[in-house]
Amino acid sequence: MNRLVLNKVIMILATVSAIVGMAFLFWILATLTMKGVSSFHFSMFVDDMVEGGIRNLLVGQFTMAIIATIIGVPVGMMAGIYLREYSNDSTLASIMRNLSDVMMSAPSIVIGVFVYALMVDPVNHYSGWAGSVALSIMMIPIIISTTDNMLSLVPKELREAGIALGGSKHKIILQIVLKAAKVGITTGILLAFARIIGETAPLLFTSANNAYFTMNMNDQFPSLTVSIYNLANYPDAESRDLAWAAAFVLTMIVLFINLTGRFLTRDKG
Questions:
Q1: What is the pLDDT of residues 89-148, one digit of tens each?
Q2: Tens of pLDDT along 163-177?
Q3: CA-based angle 234:236:240, to the nearest 5?
Q4: Are 161 and 172 in contact (CB under 8 A)?
Q5: Does residue 26 belong to any structural domain of this protein?
Q6: Domain containing 181 — which CATH number?
Q7: Would you state the pLDDT for residue 269?
Q8: Which of 4, 44, 58, 138 has CA 20 to 30 A from 176's CA?
């Protein structure tokens, strides 16, 4: 009897906790939607920040995120392939997995400070390259973990079939194993991209911000997330309204990317 009562109490507490969590999430999204939509106007996509728009901010944010993806995806995938296909569960592999898990949970501001000391402080100025490197460092452990886990789900019989046909190890990995795991790996890349596209702290220390349109990665670079932070602290109502509208756009972008990742996962099943 006591176990039944305890089970009901735990179930009630879990349900109440879920409702409270969802209530706060709904409150945040509802507030963001109301304030963001009321401040939203399509001209903001063709004007730069100095003109009351976010065109340069969107271009800058996606440019740094895409460069970070170009850097992070090959490194993360190769590390994941090594862990699953070549390491034979060695001590080094165990250390790498543990370090990857630690990096996944590392505060983003710590990564920003690290890249600041590495790339900004020595040359005494911010740059888009530093921002991209900081974002790529955040992506790499996510992609390592995803690649490692997805490759572990590929049946060993596929590898054995490739060996029976006389295929070399690297060809079996490239032509059989990776193809079998491509949906899961792609989903992990999308989720990693969704995470970095909304990051602010690393960019505060690396790329800073630029109110004007520029593609010069060697100088301060426009960033949507940093601009939202700055605009929200400005005293005039127009800047705060633009911050709400930009935050709404950023939320919709992140939501779209996450839903795409979930859809790919469902399609795999």
A1: 788 888 888 888 888 888 899 999 999 999 999 999 999 999 999 999 999 999 999 999
A2: 888 878 888 888 888
A3: 65
A4: no
A5: no
A6: 1.10.3720.10
A7: 45
A8: 138
Q: How many residues does the chain have?
A: 269
Domain membership flag for residue 20: no
C-alpha distance across the termini of the chain, in Å: 40
Instruction: Give the Å distances, CA to CA, from 19 to 26, 127, 259.
Output: 10, 43, 22
Written as one letter, the residue type at 177 is: V
Q: How far apart are CA 186 and CA 248, in angstroms?
A: 26
Q: Report if residue 12 sits inside a domain.
A: no
d(CA 107, CA 82): 26
Tokens 């945040």 found at: 28
The rounded distance, in Å, linking the Cα atoms of 44 and 244 is 12
Two tokens at 49? Answer: 């920040």
- The answer to whether position 13 is within a domain reads no
Number of domain units in the chain:
1
Which residues span the domain enclosing 75? 45-268
